[in-house]
Amino acid sequence: MRPRQTRPRLIQAMIDAFRLPDLRRRILFTFGMLVVFRLIAHVPLPGVDAQQLSQMFEQNALLGMLDMFSGGAMRNFSIAAMGVYPYITASIIMTLMVPVIPRLQMISQEGEAGRNKINRITHWLTVPLAGIAGYGQLVLLQRQGVVALSGPLATGAMVLTMIAGTIFLVWLGELITEYGIGNGISIIIFAGIVTGYPQMIGSGILVAGQQFWGLAVYGLIVLATIVLIVIFTEAHRRIPVQYARTAFRGGRMYRQTGSTHIPLRVNTAGMIPLIFAMSLVIFPGMIASYFANPATVEPNMANHIQNIFNPNAPLPLGLFYWGFYFVLVIAFAFFYTMVMFQQQDLPGTLQRQGGFVPGIRPGKNTSNYLNQVITRITTAGALFLALVAIVPFLARSVTNVQVIQLSSMGLLIMVGVVLDTMKQMEAQLTMRRYEGFIK
After folding, report:
1. Is the bond leading into 44 cis (omega within 30 degrees of zero)?
2. CA 82 to chain centre
3. In the Cβ-directed half-sphere of 124, how many Cα atoms lie within 13 Å?
4. Residue 371 CA to chain centroid, in angstroms?
5. 54, 90, 185, 412: which sits with the fewest CB atoms below 10 Å from its CB?
6. In 10 A of CB 202, how many CB atoms?
7. Among 222-226, 346-350, 431-435, the least confident range
8. The domain that contains 36 carries what CATH number?
């Protein structure tokens, strides 16, 4: 009989995995690729005024938040300043376009070959998206005097370099997925977020050291948010399903029955509604920043728009930004979940496989029943996402701690990646473990 494990599951899984040579190689390969990623994040582009760039990030909270997701690469304005987010954007676009465009829908139904084609299209779509995002960042920094080089040749060379940095990181992520542990793209995003937290927390403690109780309450809010994220990430509704099959053996017909369940996740959309909502809510302020007057000049309409869509705006002005963000997250959570549910076509799949929900007629009745269930649980999931989205605003309002920038999206990504990696590592151990192999 094995002794009861007292260590956390992830730590115990890591210890057990290091005892197996093949899993140890996978873990070390993953860490090696992350080291390469961190080295790339510190290779700056030419012509950047580091001191002025640092001052710009201190004055703009939005840039500081985006820098955290890139693991400091944006603050250094390195060749990996955009991270893998152009690829994430391309993946989301393809996910939404597949059920809409008949040609893409036909390709997605071609099995492994179809998935490879969709993946190839996603990679090609990443290139123009990375170019647009890189050019926008470069123009913004040139307007602020951070980047001295502004000629067409220099601008084109830097944009191409930033595109190459994004594609290189995507390639590293795919190598981790194939030869390492976990989803490589998610792990690279996770590494970028985690590496930004120590410096942010350390500087926040130094600046706000006198606010001891505020920092303590802030930490409790973060821990409660993490617990809430874990609960809702793992929560799902089990729909019982029974199968009735007919088999012929020895010239006779036999009826076989079986039962299983369909797990419908409460938070089916994951962090995607947060990405969509944040993209829309920061877009007006970002566009207005191009037309806003300097601080020494009388403010114009662009200045007012920039203040309205500022996440750090004081009350009551900040209520508009976070209220708008709250509503958008709920709307996108329902939209994305319904798109994914229609794409899966669970009622049709059950009918083709001879399955049915007990007490529900197959066909339209099953479709109506599943739609009602997914609507109810999505309501809970959407409210959860919207609450997590405004946690930074609530934490700052309650504790008055302004120097630590809590990111709800960062917490969602970190918890999701840790849970997913832990499950994959335990699955790898289960396949290799037999009685008495690991003591």
Report:
1. no
2. 14
3. 6
4. 26
5. 54
6. 10
7. 431-435
8. 1.10.3370.10
| H-helix segments, 60-111 | 61-69, 85-97, 102-108
Do 362 and 421 have their domain in common? no
Q: Where are the beta strands (DSSP E) in 125-251?
A: 236-249
Whether the pLDDT of residue 423 is over 60: the answer is yes
Integer Cα distance of 374 and 376 in angstroms: 6
Give residue 220's identity as a one-letter amino acid code: L
| CA gap 161, 116 in Å, rounded | 26
- What are the structure tokens assigned to 383, written together? 């409210």
Written as one string, the DSSP assignment of 140-188 is: HHHHTTSB---SHHHHHHHHHHHHHHHHHHHHHHHHHHHHSSS-HHHHH
Is residue 203 a part of any domain in this protein?
A: no
Residue the block writes with tokens 């829309």: 280
Name the pLDDT band for 438 (thresholds 50, 70, 90). very low
Q: Which two tokens stand for residue 294?
A: 């300097």
Question: Are 59 and 146 contained in the same domain?
Answer: yes
- Long-range CB contacts for residues 395-400, cutoff 8 Å, separation at least 24: 395/218, 395/221, 395/222, 397/315, 398/217, 398/221, 399/211, 399/214, 399/215, 399/217, 399/218, 399/221, 400/211, 400/214
Of how many residues is the chain composed?
Answer: 439
Amino acid present at 383: L
Whether residues 129 and 263 share a domain: the answer is: no
Q: What is the pTM of this model?
A: 0.76
Q: Yes or no: say if 204 and 360 are a contact pair by the CB < 8 Å rule.
A: no
Name the 3-class secondary structure at 258. Answer: strand
390 — phi, psi (to 5°)?
A: -95, 5
pLDDT of residue 6 exceeding 50, the answer is: no
Residues 4 and 150 in one domain: yes
pLDDT digits (tens, 9 = 90+) for 345-387: 788 777 777 778 888 888 788 888 888 888 899 998 899 888 8
Look at residue 167 in the predicted model and tell me its pLDDT.
93
Note down the domain range covering 382: 209-402
Please indicate, yes or no, if residue 202 is contained in any of the structural domains.
no
Asked whether residue 168 is assigned to any structural domain, the reply reads yes
Pairing, β 252-265 against β 236-249: antiparallel
Structural domain count, the chain? 2
Q: How far apart are CA 269 and CA 272, in angstroms?
A: 6
Q: Are residues 308 and 186 in the same domain?
A: no
